[in-house]
Amino acid sequence: MTKRKALGKGLSALIPEADGLEDGEEEFFKCPVEAIEANPYQPRQDISESDLEGMVNSVREKGIITPLLVSRTETGYQLIAGERRWRAAQKAGLERVPVVVREVAPYESLELALIENIHRKDLNAVEEALAYKRLLEEAEITQDSLAKRLGKDRSSIANLLRLLNLPLSIQKDLIDGRLSMGHARVLVGIGDPEEQKGLRDAVIKKGLSVRQTETLAKKRRGPRNLKNKQSELDYYVQSLADKLKLSLGTKVEIKKKGREGRIVVYFYSDEELERLLDLFG
Question: The CATH number of 4-104 is which of 3.40.50.720, 3.40.50.150, 3.90.180.10, 3.90.1530.10?
């Protein structure tokens, strides 16, 4: 079987571009679709049929442009990254698909699938949190180490992991879009499951905004001493900062005092500064 070259290292090796398949270091070949099995570590739990159908039509017309990432097994190959492309190829009736083979440990398979999904923004908040939790446990690493490996803020990972402390019914609301991340942050801060459910019911019944939810949560918790008030997280402002982090791809802080404040955007190289200036331009 004739093999060709795929792209080099890092994220570009994980998600190579079709135009560069001849130029890199890793090899790819056309693998029978039926020889590939699903990734048991796939963090994405739900793929909508409507999204998949659009990809099926594209695959029928153009084939699979970006190779799948797989590892060898005793009976064939196991998918690491490219779940939607693999499913679309099956539905489209393709017999073979381009794959890049990489030998990985189980936790590395989860890590690579997670990187691809984060890069493509395919995961909802709960799926991402569950993947972080599993990776922390299986790789036996700290949140700081995980943040560095994924190029994420440690605080972002910690905040997502806190979502798993919410009752499963509220996690489902978040997955289904009945609650936003801002609402979830307020609910996580309450702590008591029954109070969380009561506030959740009020949010959905009255259609409360995040700010209204935060105000209601403070009223229900009653007065606190000055020290607690000073240390209390402003969930609404934090949710805005997180949205900016996702949009800009770098650490962002919002520092607010009364009605005034400032937004701090971090950069770590001249190239990143130029990228941010282009975005603001």
Answer: 3.90.1530.10
How many other β-carbons are positioned within 10 Å of the β-carbon of residue 61?
Answer: 8
Longest dimension (CA), the chain: 72
Of the candidates 26, 34, 53, 83, the residue annotated as catalytic is: 83
Taking only the tens place, the pLDDT of each residue in 115-168 is 776 666 667 888 888 888 888 887 788 888 888 887 788 888 888 899 999 999
Question: Catalytic annotation on 83?
Answer: yes
pTM higher than 0.90: no
Running DSSP on this structure, what letter comes out for residue 58?
H
- 210: tokens are 């995040």
Query: What SS3 class is residue 140?
Result: coil
pLDDT band at 227 (very low <50, low <70, confident <90, very high): very low
Pairing, β 27-32 against β 96-101: antiparallel
Residue 35: name the closest of 84, 117, 101 by CA.
101
Q: What pLDDT is recorded for position 200? A: 94
Please report, for the chain, the start and end positions of each structural domain, with discontinuous segments joined by +: 4-104, 166-280
Q: Which residue has the tokens 């403070």?
A: 218
